[in-house]
Specification:
This protein is mainly α. The chain has helices spanning 4-23, 27-36, 45-61, 70-92, 96-123, 127-145, 150-159, 167-186, 190-213. The protein has one domain. The protein is 72% helix and 0% strand. α6 (127-145) runs parallel beside α9 (190-213). The two termini are 31 Å apart.
């Protein structure tokens, strides 16, 4: 019989794999940007925000904050590198106004992260207190990120069309939230459980909407495509 720790490890590895592919989901967008040598109408905000989100989850998963969370560190570390790559591409192909905006946002995130690390390691002692502070901040950031598909879902309901809500991205988001929710449930971790529970619920709602409006969708409708920013994984917090 498989013990709980082994099950948790296996689930965490599966979660790493799913989250990794979710991190790679915007690659077609950046191929377009590189080919056009312009960011066109795409926005850097989700990627800049995800940089901080990944950095916070890496800090959360370190042994000095929350022990036995190596798999949280690995996927968010990889995600951090991928998101930095996306932001770099945005920076290279943006105008000076956008570059200034990206630079200021990254400086703010760096200062914020430094303050959080300093307060956590200087004034908080013990895993419980450190996990609480960093975990609550991670929940807040993830909750904000999970509000992003609300506009897409509202559009689906109003237009009765799922043309611009990719099915496989919604399905993968649901799978990602479910697997990390299970991971957090085995060795009870409320700070990991809450955002992934929201991610699981968000993905489920998207799938229900897809099933409801799929047959009503006019796939030949000529409409200007816009980038759909569904949350790309809770990243174990992605």
């Amino acid at each position: 019989m498989v013990d709980a720790e082994t099950s948790r490890t296996v689930i965490g590895i599966i979660g790493n794999i799913i989250s990794f592919f979710l991190f790679l989901s915007p690659v077609p967008t950046f191929i377009k940007i590189r080919k056009a040598k312009s960011v066109q109408g795409f926005k850097p905000d989700p990627y800049v925000a995800t940089v901080l989100n990944c950095a916070m989850w890496v800090f959360y998963g370190l042994p000095i904050v929350h022990p036995d969370s190596l798999l949280v560190v690995t996927i968010n570390g990889v995600g951090f590198i991928i998101e930095i790559s996306y932001v770099t591409i945005f920076f290279l192909f943006s105008n000076w106004a956008m570059r200034k905006r990206i630079t200021m946002a990254l400086i703010f995130e760096l200062v914020f992260l430094f303050i959080v690390v300093f307060i956590t390691l200087t004034f908080l002692h013990g895993h419980k207190d450190r996990s609480m502070l960093v975990g609550i901040l991670c929940i807040i950031f993830n909750t904000i990120m999970y509000t992003s598909p609300l506009t897409v879902m509202r559009r689906v309901i109003s237009t009765k069309s799922v043309k611009y809500m990719p099915f496989f991205l919604s399905l993968t988001n649901f799978a990602n939230g479910s697997i990390w929710f299970s991971y957090a449930l085995i060795k009870f971790d409320p700070y990991l459980m809450v955002p992934n529970g929201l991610g699981m619920l968000s993905g489920l709602v998207q799938l229900v909407l897809y099933a409801t409006y799929y047959r009503m969708t006019d796939w030949d409708e000529d409409e200007k495509s816009t980038e759909i920013e569904l949350p790309r994984a809770n990243y174990a917090g992605v």
